[in-house]
Amino acid sequence: MSVSLSGSCLPPSSSLIPIRQLVVASEEQIAAALRNLQALYCPLRLPTAISKPAPKWKHISGVSTPSPIDSGYASRDEKQFEDDVAVSEEVTAALRADPYERTFATRWLTSLISRVEEMGFDEDATASIIDDAAFILSSFSDFTKDEEEEALERDFSFPTASGGKVEVTLNDAPLSGTDHTDVGLQSWGASIVLSSMMCADHERFGLQQETLGERPTIIELGAGTGLVSLTLAKLLPEFGVTGANIVATDYHLAVLDNCKLNVETNFPSEQPPVGIQILDWSQPPADLQSTATMLIASDVIYAPEHAAWLRDCAAHLLKPDGTFWLMATVRKTGKFEGIPETVESAFVPKLCPKDASGRVFKILQKETVEKRRSIGRGDESGYNLYRIGWV
Ligand SMILES: C[S@@+](CC[C@H](N)C(=O)[O-])C[C@H]1O[C@@H](n2cnc3c(N)ncnc32)[C@H](O)[C@@H]1O
């Protein structure tokens, strides 16, 4: 990674040495990458060095009366320089706040720490690389008082097909403001719309005993606050499904802590019907292979690699007769442009996983779901609901 000519940092995702090439990178390359990540993410500790150019004064001959070059307080060059710095700071601030770039940098730094011993540098260089990488990672979890916001308790009430109601209370924790990977601390529109759809028409989601069978295992991927899992835990007994093993999973520890709190709030009993488990889509645990009767995921496609990770993770976890419900949020602007389409690109025939019995893991059905008024954020234009499974 490097600093661009304008002085603003370049995005980690397009400038860091690819993780698989780390082991052949030189000490200088790693040091430069770390310096620049520090410039981007620890600006107060290590300001980006933007050297101020010497003002270029117009040459005024000694015989003429000197006249001001600029009627303002600063020369045009100085103003231009100040404007450039302001723009560059704005670009850097936007980059610093970008959750995708931060996740990318986190993964890169974590990989660097785990591989640096194999890179053949001497002991001091290895130790200093580990220190610098850990320093940047630690700044991601800094949480100053000033940035604290009030946690918000939200009550949801979803009408069910039998005329009842499923009620869920959630703690939408404040985003830390510094760790931009903690997006799962808040409930997103897709999880609210999906929960309400499941309550309104549970049969269409196969949420009855005949379809799910005895003691089904339902795993939510990227569960965030756990709204969908909690809704299911309250909905299923209404339709005679008992003994379901519902597991809300996520890869982010702060998100899982908040999810656990939500489970305790909704099920103060000692044996809550929703379990919590860490699960990273890029490395699903081997022991969960073919264990899920149903998989559910909402608003989990917001970076280019997510769809392919989720495809492979779901193929690993789902039983041959299971169903994967994926509710993808459609955002068409900015860095999300093109992301909703990655779901279908990940399931073109040649990329669909196949099992030993010749079954293919593919999209069986797609439905577009409209955005609902006052649900979800302004950049959400709707949702795509996919039914995915083995055939
Ligand atoms: C936009 S939030 C959606 C949360 C929740 N499903 C909802 O709709 O409110 C995306 C969630 O995916 C999780 N996530 C992102 N990358 C992940 C990964 N590689 N493995 C597991 N979870 C991940 C995040 O921590 C976050 O909780």
UniProtKB/TrEMBL annotation:
InterPro entries tied to this protein: Methyltransf_16, SAM-dependent_MTases_sf
SUPFAM superfamilies reported in the protein's UniProt record: S-adenosyl-L-methionine-dependent methyltransferases
Pfam families xref list: Methyltransf_16
GO MF: S-adenosylmethionine-dependent methyltransferase activity
Name by which UniProt lists this protein: S-adenosyl-L-methionine-dependent methyltransferase
Organism: Ophiobolus disseminans
